[in-house]
Each structure stands twice: as structure tokens, then as C-alpha cells.
Amino acid sequence: MLRRVIALGLTAPFFLSCQGNGVIKIWNCAECLDGWTCTADSCLPPHCGNDVTDEDEGETDRDCGGSCEPCGLGASCETGIDCKEGVCLQGVCKAPTCTDGVANGFETGIDCGTRSCPLCPAGEGCLTGENCGSGVCRERVCQAPSCDDGVLNGSELAVDCGGDCRTCR
After folding, report:
1. For the residues of 22-58, what is the DSSP string, one character each?
2. Checking DSSP bridges between strand 92-93 and strand 15-18, what pairing results, if any?
3. Is the pLDDT of residue 27 over 80?
4. I need a surface site. Which of 51, 62, 93, 114 has the fewest CB within 10 A?
5. Given CA atoms 149, 155, 159, 165 in this order, what sign does their dihedral have?
């Protein structure tokens, strides 16, 4: 059974593995299975380093995709999960764009939140208010305009007044 290993944000070589039986274990590289390769953030099964596309092991290109590390640009893929950038279009890993339906590249939300993409609507991801159409980012989520957010947005004529808010003085 393949075990995908995910980084914990700890200094390598410590990893968290969720096995198919639901058991969670923490180990270091020395505890990777025999023949597996320890990388900066995962233990990879032997077929992920044999310079062959092992379709029977789930690889979509040579030593990547499926149960191996995600593939780079131009590699074959079946879904976005096979690609480093998260975009698989017509069976090929593609670079991020503002219309690919994935939060990738420098986007803070899905196809939004960068200087080259539109500002994000309420509910999408953000780092600051500059990523959001409303100008308001709280807890890394763009907020809808409100009459008490301290930002001139929505139908307001001045900050938090006019339009649908209280009358401005």
C-alpha cells in the first residue's frame, strides 16, 4: 500500500504519514521503508525514481504524478493533482492563469487576488485588503462590504456612510 507523506512544517527530516488504516505516525528519514527515497518533504516509493513512467503505479509521466511527486510544466497528467501548479489541461500540466479555476501561482483566491488577476470577491482567500474587491480581508478571507468596516466600499459615498449605510454628516 502506498503511503503519501506530508510535511508538518517541522524541520526535516520529520514527517506525518496517514496510512490507509487511519493510523497516524511521525518518523524521520531513517525510518522510510527500505528502497524508498527520502526527500525534503516526503518518502517516495522506489518506482518514483526509476526514470520510467510506471502507469500501473499511477504515474502520469516519468517518475511523477499519481502516487509520486507532482509533475512539472509540460508533463502528462490526468488531473490537477498530478501537477505542481495544480493545472492539468487536455492531459498536460500547464502554468497558472487567471482563468484556470485553481488558486495557484501568486493568487490568493481562485483566479483572483494578484496584480494581474481581478480582485477577489467575498469568501475568497486574501493576505491583505488589497487582494479583495471590498478592500477588507479578515482571517485570510475577503469580506463583503459593510457599513462598519472602515473602508469606502459598496454603495457608500464616504467611509461607512451614504448609500445603503447611515447618512453622512
Report:
1. S-EEEE-GGGSPTT-EE-SS-EE-GGGGSSS--GGGT
2. unpaired
3. no
4. 51
5. negative
